[in-house]
Amino acid sequence: xxxxxxxxxxxxxxxxxxxxxxxxxxxxxxxxxxxxxxxxxxxxxxxxxxxxxxxxxxxxxxxxxxxxxxxxxxxxxxxxxxxxxxxxxxxxxxxxxxxxxxxxxxxxxxxxxxxxxxxxxxxxxxxxxxxxxxxxxxxxxxxxxxxxxxxxxxxxxxxxxxxxxxxxxxxxxxxxxxxxxxxxxxxxxxxxxxxxxxxxxxxxxxxxxxxxxxxxxxxxxxxxxxxxxxxxxxxxxxxxxxxxxxxxxxxxxxxxxxxxxxxxxxxxxxxxxxxxxxxxxxxxxxxxxxxxxxxxxxxxxxxxxxxxxxxxxxxxxxxxxxxxxxxxxxxxxxxxxxxxxxxxxxxxxxxxxxxxxxxxxxxxxxxxxxxxxxxxxxxxxxxxxxxxxxxxxxxxxxxxxxxxxxxxxxxxxxxxxxxxxxxxxxxxxxxxxxxxxxxxxxxxxxxxxxxxxxxxxxxxxxxxxxxxxxxxxxxxxxxxxxxxxxxxxxxxxxxxxxxxxxxxxxxxxxxxxxxxxxxxxxxxxxxxxxxxxxxxxxxxxxxxxxxxxxxxxxxxxxxxxxxxxxxxxxxxxxxxxxxxxxxxxxxxxxxxxxxxxxxxxxxxxxxxxxxxxxx
Length: 615
Prior knowledge:
Blueprint: H1 2-24, H2 49-57, H3 67-80, H4 84-109, H5 132-142, H6 147-151, H7 156-176, H8 182-196, H9 205-217, H10 222-251, H11 262-281, H12 304-318, H13 324-337, H14 363-380, H15 385-403, H16 410-420, H17 425-437, H18 441-453, H19 459-472, H20 476-489, H21 494-507, H22 510-523, H23 528-540, H24 544-557, H25 562-574, H26 578-591, H27 596-613
Helix pairs in contact: 1-4, 1-5, 1-15, 2-3, 4-5, 4-7, 5-14, 5-15, 7-8, 8-10, 9-10, 9-13, 11-12, 13-14, 16-17, 17-18, 17-19, 18-19, 19-20, 20-21, 21-22, 22-23, 23-24, 23-25, 24-25, 25-26, 26-27
């Protein structure tokens, strides 16, 4: 009887959290893939068992080296392929699990009544969850700021990492409070490693644990608190430095767009913190890419943000003996946010210095503080707190439901991003790609033009994409002009040389086309398509022996390349090397029995042979 009374309210609460989360995120279950998902949902080259080995052990095989995350995506792709429902449903369930773990985590902290003196210690009350841990879990589950992490497939790194992070924290604190044996310590360290192998921001856990232990005990001890966390700190620091190197070396977080001075970074960190606190308190106008701020450390108003933050920290520090909770919550928030506060470079900074998914983990501290404040108000019966909490959760749930619509399908996603941030060159560029793929070239050209007017990062990419659309329309001189501009900005790109070569070849400018394809072959010697195109340009220039060499190299690089085999056959016929030509044509038909031009050429060759045999 007693056990039932203890367990049943908790089970009802966790069921409520899962049901509420599924209801709020129901539109996300019907969402598709959006930007960057192709870099996370397992690429064809990594879908084999050997590909799994590369995911786990090869830095650079995936966009970011998160082996546990990409290993999970590998398994998921085996289960449901490119069908989006499975990925979205798993993300929602992981998010709901984290919300439940927040409840468990906060309730475990409250086993020591002295840690939360004056707070009710009951799980009963308003709609069965009057305690602060329950409200904190529901706030996390339903807050619309979380939508970007839950409805975007790529951000499974957030939802998966946070589950391991919270499990590690719960396990470690149970061990630290002597509620479990030494095996729990090792298990918590393994969970921590699993968390950072899913997303590096979890490396902040040791600092968060120190904040929590200080909040509970009022002081920290070197032997009792710091030394046990030394392995966690070492692992977290090493992985954080490694991730920063990967972000710079492989992802591209370097260059002029990341060259902020120390004062600029200090100002930026203050503004970032206030931005996120504002979105937590008033989650209006949430968009995927926020406008990118211009950081001017010489402007007096720019210092309002960091100075205001320091004053707030100072005030909470002086009040820590009476109310330590607010300081602990803010330190947790700022510490968890630190890797993405602007102090270090992150590739996403080329688009914006802030993003909703970057505060998925840090927001837990602020939500816990808000729930604790609500509980104190409820205890004093100053307002109808239960009704107020229920109304707040309903509003948040509705906002989350509506925000999920942003991720319904990719064109809607970019159009709504542009509506909220017209200066987002990335959205204009990617919308242009979608429109071009949808055979809407005029609209695509308009979007590319908009992107180029917005001073984008790496404009050469947009010039190249615009050239591809113009080339498809047959506007050859305009396409060539765009490819030349792309090459002016990035002279070493094989793709730009190849595309310019294609435009020149179609214009009949054979000598220039040969030069461009030759440059592309030097930059990308293993590209069979470049070799084939160079062979065509050489053949049309009357340079058959050189053309034969290029076609032979193309089929060596890609034995199943039907067009290269056929082109080689045609040039061999022109060179009167009929036997070799026949073998190539037979290879074409073996690879593709329906390739009629090869069959026709074989008939003509047979007719010539027959005529020679019967003069």
